[in-house]
Design brief:
The complex is a heterodimer of chains A (208) and B (230).
Chain A: H1 3-10, H2 14-17, H3 21-26, H4 40-47, H5 51-68, H6 77-88, H7 95-103, H8 115-131, H9 139-161, H10 166-205
Helix pairs in contact in A: 4-5, 6-8, 6-10, 8-9, 9-10
Chain B: H1 4-19, H2 43-46, H3 53-84, H4 90-114, H5 123-140, H6 142-166, H7 176-200, H8 209-229
The chains are: A mainly alpha (208), B mainly alpha (230).
Cofactor (chain B): Fe cation
Family (chain B): Belongs to the COQ7 family.
GO molecular function (chain B): 3-demethoxyubiquinol 3-hydroxylase activity; metal ion binding; oxidoreductase activity, acting on paired donors, with incorporation or reduction of molecular oxygen, NAD(P)H as one donor, and incorporation of one atom of oxygen
Chain lengths: 208, 230
Amino acid sequence: MSRNVLLQLALPLVETHGFTRQVLARSVLSLPTHEEPLSETAVSALFGNGSDARRTLINAWLDDARRQMKSAPSPALKDVLAFRLRFNEPVLSHLPEAFALLASPSTAFPPLDPMPALKHAAKVADEACYISGDTTVGNAWYARRASLAAIYAAAELHQLTSPHTAYTFLDGLLDTSSKVESSLGEADLFASYIGRSWAGIIKSRGIF
Amino acid sequence: MLKPQCVSRCRAIQPRLRRGLTWLNCQPGPSIAYLQTYKPDDPAVASTPDLSAKQKKILDSALRVDQAGELAANYIYMGQMAVLGRDPLTGPLIQEMWDQEKKHLAVMNKLQVQHRARPTIVWDVARIAGFGLGAVTALMSREAAMACTEAVETVIGEHYDDQLREMEDLPTSHPSVPLLRNVVREFRDDELEHLDIAVENYAQRAPAHALLSTVVGAGCKIAIELCKRV
C-alpha cells in the first residue's frame, strides 16, 4: 500500500481528529481489507518518528488544499485566495496548533523556524498567480508573489481569530495593494516624464 | 563543444551573410508557435509536463539561465546601440541582431510563465551588466564591440548546445518538450549566426582581441553558472 494513498485517506479524518498520529493510524480503516488501525511502529516507519509523522500529515493537507485551489469559482485573484481560505474552515480549530508545530523545529536550533510558514504563504501566492493567468516576469514576478504571500498570510492569521471577517479583510488588503501598485506606477511614469524633459532641456542647451 | 554539423551549417551560410542581413528574419523557426501563431489553448505552449523533482529542477534552471541570458543580450545590444547607433554601417547591423534578441526574450518570457519557472533574482544585475558591457566595448571601438558579440555568442551557443543534451532526459510524451527543444535549437543557430556576423565584421581585428574575448567569455560563463543557481 502506497504511503501517498494512505495520506490521501487520512485527510478527510483530520476534520474530526485533528492533525494527529491517530489519524494516520486510522487511515487504513477506509480500506476494505483492513479492520485494525496501523500500529505505532507502522506509523513511525511510514510517516516519520514522533511529531515528524504529524508534520508529514500537515504538509500533505497543505499540498492537497493548494491543489484544490484550481477549482475556485472564477480565476480572479480575489476568488482564488478566498477559496483557499474557505478550505481552512473545517479544520480551523486544529490549524493554530498545526502551524505552531511546523514553526517548532525538530532540532534545538533555531528555536523558531519561520521557513515552513513563509514557504506555505509563498506557494499559495504562486499557485494563485498561476491560476489567475499572471504573466509578470523578472522583478515584477517577485514583487507580485511577495505582496500576495503577505496578503494571504495576514488574511489567514486573521481567519484564525475571526473566521467570519476574514474574507472582507482579504478583499480590503487586495484593494489596498492594487491601489498602491497603481500609484507607484503613476509615480514612475511621472518621474520618467520629468527625467525626459530634463534630458531635453540639457540637450537643447548644448552642454554636451 | 559544438556539434560539427552545426558549425559546418554556419560556415555554409556565411556567403549569404556578406550579401546582406535581411534574410535573417525571413524563415520562421519553431519559436513562431509562441509569437505570431500563438494559440492559448494549445497544450504545447500552454501547459507544462508532469516531471519528477529532479527533471523539474533541470527545466527550471535551464529556463532561468536562458531568460537571463537573452535579457542580458538585449541590454548588450542596447548598450552598443547607445554608442554606435548613429554609425551608418554598424547601426543597422546591431539593430538587426537586437531585434532577434528581442524576439528571443519574448519567447523566453512566455516559456517562463508556461513552465512556472522562477526568474533569476539577479534580474537587474543582468540588465545593468549587459548594458555596461555593450556600451564599454562599443566605446573602445567598433571592432571591440564585434569582438564582444563574438565572445558572448560563442559562450551562449555552447551553452545552448549543452542544454540540448541535458534536455534529452525530459519525457517527449508531452508536446511542449519537443517544441522547447526545437526552440532552443533555433536560438542556438541564431546566436551562432550573430557570431558569424561579428567575425565577418572584423571582430578579430579588435585590439587585444584574445584578451578581450577571454575576459568577456569568462564573465559570461560565470554569469551562466550564477543564473542557473539563483
